[in-house]
Amino acid sequence: MNRSDEHQLLMQCLSLLEEKSTTLSPQSHASPTDRYTDPDRFAQELKAIHQRLPIAYLHSSELPEPHHFRTIDTHVGAVLFTRGEDGNVNAFHNVCRHRGAQVESRASGCAKAFSCPYHAWRYSAEGELISVPFEQTCFPDLNKSERGLVAIPCIEAYGFIWLCPEADSREAAEQQVAQHFEPVSADLSWLGLDQLHTFDQHRRRWRCNWKIVNEGGLETYHFKFAHKDSIGPYFLSNTCVTDQLGAHFRVVMPTEKLKEVTEASLADTRLRDITHIVYGLAPQTTFLVQKAHIDWIQMIPVCVDETDIIMTSLIPTPREELSAEEHAYWQRNLEISIATLDEDFELGQSIQAGLNSGANQSLTFGRNEGALAAYNRWVEDQLQAFNNG
Ligand code: FES
Ligand SMILES: [Fe+2]
Description:
The protein is α+β, with helices and mostly antiparallel strands. The chain has two domains: about 5-50 and about 185-385, Naphthalene 1,2-dioxygenase Alpha Subunit, Chain A, domain 1 (Alpha-Beta Complex), CATH 3.90.380.10; about 55-165, Rieske [2Fe-2S] iron-sulphur domain (Rieske Iron-sulfur Protein, 3-layer Sandwich). It has eleven helices and 19 strands. The strands form five sheets. It has a seven-stranded antiparallel β-sheet. A four-stranded antiparallel β-sheet has the order 5-4-3-6, with no helix packed on it. Strand 10 and strand 11 form a beta hairpin. Helix 2 (about 40-50) crosses helix 11. It binds FE2/S2 (inorganic) cluster and fe (ii) ion.
């Protein structure tokens, strides 16, 4: 995003403020409730969307140097992420090629090689099988070059490490990420995500469908009600600029500070000073952009009515360089974000319980909730394209 795009968004916020309105779609929509309750449909969504598109599991700063590694349970099983000698990031199924034990059990660390705990087959950070105890007598026919850890294409872009299970090579993964994020590429560069550092992470499982969680970030209609005791008072009621950018959504949410902007101060006003911006990146990565930091929210579908949420705060300074005062500041910010998002997710659980009761055959999206309808249309399109082969 360049300064003129930022200016354009500021102007749109100011017009909405004057009109006391928000981005409106031409009409309201009905969303059938089986979108959120049907386990067969959920299984299809996983295949058509989550197992096909790039998904971020790590911020680049979590693998800062060659030989750093992380193990993560992902939607394609247990994965070992390493940064190789050459600085490139690798991802492997964390599964030994001998008899299938998990090779690395530590969550993170620094290692030049990984030794399976069962019979000590050893693998390099690039996944090659380096050594096998008693190889000559017990495995005379073993071709070690064919028994490296099984790689999953992954690439580093925009400050994150993206797993691309459907790509068949690193080049294909690069192409897929470039294509998928092309419509938000300028915005992601503008955010300077690769300059940030992880401060802390919070994980919790919620009893609601993954789409309900995503929908909650696409409107501000609920702010003054659902968040009345937290962030509600700081935001304009039912006012936001929403845009669909390819498969993704950007929601610019003005705070009360927008009212202080004058024609004279406009040129010096940064969008991030007077708004929060939600980027809902398909399928399960959300950025909540605030003045100086970003909350990265991963929404990992578990089953049709359960979703794991991982909230990671990304800040401008490495955690180990923070003063006690700065540490307390970011900790407070994180607690506010968690408390606010918990309000959303509690409501998500309440919606899911209502859906499961069968009281509604469909949910209603008003003209001010047009992004929710567009988002569900995108999901429907993915399912249709997948089913049409
Ligand atoms: S299962 Fe890994 S060395 Fe045997
Ligand atoms: Fe909310």
